[in-house]
Amino acid sequence: MIDVCLLGTGGMMPLPGRHLTALLVRHQGHSILIDCGEGTQVAIRKYGWSMHSIDAILFTHVHGDHIAGISGLLSSMNTEGRTEAVHIYGPDAVEEVVANLCVVVGVNFNVYFHSLRENPFQVGQLKVTAFPVKHNITCYGYRLDLSRRPKFLPENAKALGVPVQDWKRLQAGQTVRVGLRTVTPEEVSGPERSGLSLVYSTDTRPCATLEKAAKNCDLLITEGIYGDRAKTKGAEEKCHMTAWEAGELADRAGAKETWLTHYSPSFRNQAQYYEEMASKHPSVRFASDGWHRTLDFRPKGESC
Question: Catalytic residue at 65?
Answer without folding.
Answer: yes
